[in-house]
Write a structure and sequence with these properties.
The protein is α+β, with helices and mostly antiparallel strands. The protein is about 20% helix and about 25% strand. The chain has 4 helices and 8 strands, in the order ααβαβββββββα. It has an 8-stranded mixed beta sheet. The protein starts with 19 loop residues before the first helix and ends with a helix.
Length: about 240
């Protein structure tokens, strides 16, 4: 990766930038906690040079528009170009100064069953000061969390180079190019979507479970739903 984008969000492909105390709290609320996210975060900083998957012929895979209805630091690597051609955006939307929590209306939060919403800034050295929003379901099983962060230091194509420890694919969210990804060789631990909205800017939405029983397809469906909600609101604000 280039020196200007040396640092990609909380860690490569990663769980939200939650404090350790918040992670412990989420685990204690579940009788069947998931495997150690600290181990996954350690896996996330390992950069590899193979294995990025993409849609056929580099064409984005549309995400159904349902909206209408670890803190370890990443290592860096020289950035190669994306393995697929990233299509142009329908328009540019700046994320500068945006509080991601404003992208989820009360109705949308209710649809996500989020009973705890916190606005703050990334604790990652790589993205210090960037605005983030954590939406949690903590009132009862199953426990899970969404994280939304406005990235303004690199483009979405960085997730499609094959240089990060993720399995990724090019998709489309409401006409905007996006990367959907998860940890390489890891299933049922979370799903991430990064939507390119401007040069060197993307909206990153993460979904991860704090209870057992979730499957990968379900996690990605939930991430897509939250992403569509955020993008719908974003386009009304900008």
């Amino acid at each position: 990766m280039s020196s200007g984008s040396a640092s990609s969000l909380f860690s490569w492909a990663t769980r939200p930038a939650l404090t350790e105390s918040r992670r412990v709290r989420s685990r204690r609320r579940s009788e069947t906690p998931v495997g150690s996210r600290l181990i996954l975060a350690a896996l996330a900083v390992v950069l590899v040079t193979a294995g990025c998957t993409s849609s056929a012929s580099g064409q984005p895979t549309p995400v159904p528009d349902d909206s209408a209805t670890s803190n370890s630091e990443p290592q860096t690597s020289a950035s190669s170009g994306p393995t697929v051609e990233v299509p142009p955006r329908p328009r540019d939307i700046s994320l500068e100064g945006l509080d991601p929590c404003t992208l989820f209306t009360d109705e949308q939060r209710a649809q996500l069953l989020a009973d705890d919403v916190k606005s703050g800034e990334s604790e990652s050295k790589a993205f210090a000061g960037m605005k983030e929003c954590v939406l949690s379901k903590e009132a009862g099983e199953p426990f899970y969390e969404y994280n939304a962060l406005a990235v303004t230091t690199e483009g979405v194509e960085e997730w499609l180079t094959g240089n990060r420890n993720v399995d990724s694919e090019l998709i489309s969210v409401q006409g905007f190019p996006a990367a959907k990804f998860k940890f390489r060789n890891v299933e049922d631990e979370g799903c991430d979507i990064a939507v390119g909205v401007a040069d060197r800017q993307y909206l990153w939405v993460q979904m991860f479970p704090a209870s057992r029983g979730f499957k990968q397809d379900q996690l990605c469906q939930m991430a897509e739903e939250a992403t569509n909600m955020a993008m719908t609101t974003l386009q009304t604000l900008k």
